[in-house]
Write a structure and sequence with these properties.
This protein is an alpha/beta fold. The protein has twelve helices and 19 strands. The two termini are 20 Å apart.
């Protein structure tokens, strides 16, 4: 097996150190790394040396919210293409959402998705199980069977749809306690958002588009944190997007409720003003909000109220986006741009004291902890799994939709220049990306 000697990487943006990766782990650090590499080379082991003197080393990124579309919508994405894009974006683990066809609401389907990820070889795939059968919100899915399956599901979500029935939500929260699971809620009161196309506000009124009011998100979050408190369970809020939602989560945490929340990269940087051109690339659920909401979610991420960044990577084929705004599908790709957008919105923003250690916390360590993925988000120390990413913080790159590794081109950042570039990604000690280019495992699905 090829081993790697990473020279002079800045660990979490701090002190520089050598790292030697062998047998799937970080085998040595500092002065011991070069010595270990020399010994291995003398024993006939292939050692690849990487100059990381201008690079930052982070634990491999973990996405708690990825749509891989397989099974059922392979025209938009497959597990192989989605995880290849993930690796290029610096991710070593993604959580595949349940709104596939068939829905991932049984042990059989989640095991299929998990095995497709193992076969593809780009990143670890942790399936997310549906909360309700068929995402219909009528009856709980096989939560226990999915938890006991080979996929070891610990996150359950009807994402794309809200579990709006409070009795069902309560039962789900009670059920997952048995195996330390978490319900991840898509907070959207359906009656308040019928026919909604964008954020309800000044811009929607001027454009004549049906609005999606902030209260539709906030009301569900308020209900669910109280339900979680009542039953003593964990609840996770998907793609939080409003200032009011930040306030509710902050209140719940101060009260001691076991709630975590995520924000997407696009909600950290884009506003509803982007919709003025009626470009379907900016149509997403929840919708892009106001500048005040963007400021609030940034502040919430900086102060820890919002725990993590999750991409909500939602690929669509051209025909689902290249149409009139009202008919277009909701969603944006995000795996390959996520890290750069977070750097632009937070790290390079002097308003916040948000550094590379915070990037590691919000994009690796904490999402791994929420998803109960023991081998991910680990410190870069001897004996730990060799899941890590090397980033050039001074590089810039221009987003070309056609050059992205995802199977779909629906990015809101087309032609934008973004900071920071992933140079190399290592999963289980193997380079999935080198010099910014994916490197397929022999025999893998590419």
């Amino acid at each position: 097996m090829t081993t790697y000697l990473i020279r002079a990487a800045s660990v979490l943006g701090g002190e520089r150190s050598d790292l030697y990766l062998a047998d799937g782990v970080i085998a040595a650090l500092g002065a011991d790394a070069a010595a270990a590499a020399t010994t291995a080379n003398a024993d006939g082991v292939d050692v690849v040396e990487i100059d990381a003197s201008t690079l930052i080393a982070l634990p491999g990124l973990v996405d708690l919210h990825t749509h891989l579309r397989e099974p059922g919508r392979e025209d938009a994405e497959t597990v192989a293409s989605g995880t290849r894009a993930a690796a290029v974006g610096g991710f070593t683990c993604v959580h595949a959402m349940a709104n596939t066809d068939p829905v991932a609401d049984t042990a059989g389907v989640v095991e299929q998705v998990w095995r497709l990820g193992e076969d593809a070889g780009w990143a670890q795939v942790r399936p997310v199980g549906a909360v309700t059968v068929g995402l219909r919100g009528e009856q709980l899915a096989e939560l226990g069977a999915m938890a006991d399956s080979a996929a070891a599901v610990r996150v359950f979500s009807d994402d794309g749809k809200c579990v709006d029935d409070p009795v069902l939500m309560r039962r789900a929260l009670e059920y997952v306690k048995a195996f330390d699971g978490v319900v991840a809620q898509h907070a959207q009161e359906p009656r308040l958002t019928e026919g909604a196309l964008m954020h309800e506000g000044v811009v929607s009124a001027e454009l004549g588009l049906t609005g999606w009011p902030a209260v539709a998100e906030e009301a569900i979050i308020a209900r669910d944190v109280l339900l979680a408190e009542h039953v003593g369970s964990r609840v996770h809020i998907c793609h939080l997007s409003t200032a009011g939602s930040v306030d509710i989560v902050r209140w719940a945490k101060a009260r001691g409720i076991d709630v975590t929340a995520e924000v997407t990269p696009h909600h950290l940087i884009l506003t509803d003003e982007a919709v003025r051109g009626y470009d379907p690339q900016f149509k997403v659920n929840p919708p892009l909000r106001t500048a005040a909401d963007v400021a609030a979610v940034r502040a919430g991420l900086a102060d820890g109220t919002i725990d993590i960044v999750a991409t909500d990577h939602a690929p669509h084929p051209d025909e689902d986006k290249d149409c009139e705004f009202a008919a277009a599908a909701m969603g944006m790709t995000g795996l390959e741009t996520a890290l750069s957008v977070v750097v632009a919105a937070m790290v390079d923003n002097p308003e916040y004291e948000f550094d590379w250690a915070d990037v590691a916390r919000t994009m690796s360590t904490t999402p791994a902890a929420i998803g109960r993925v023991a081998e991910q988000g680990r410190p870069l120390e001897v004996g730990e799994p060799a899941n890590l990413v090397l980033v050039d913080p001074d590089a810039t790159w221009t987003v070309d939709p056609a050059a992205l590794r995802t199977a779909s081109e629906n990015t809101p950042f087309a032609s934008d220049e973004l900071p920071a570039r992933v140079v190399a990604t290592f999963w289980r000690g193997r380079a999935t990306v080198l010099d910014g280019e994916p490197r397929a495992r022999v025999g893998s699905r590419s």
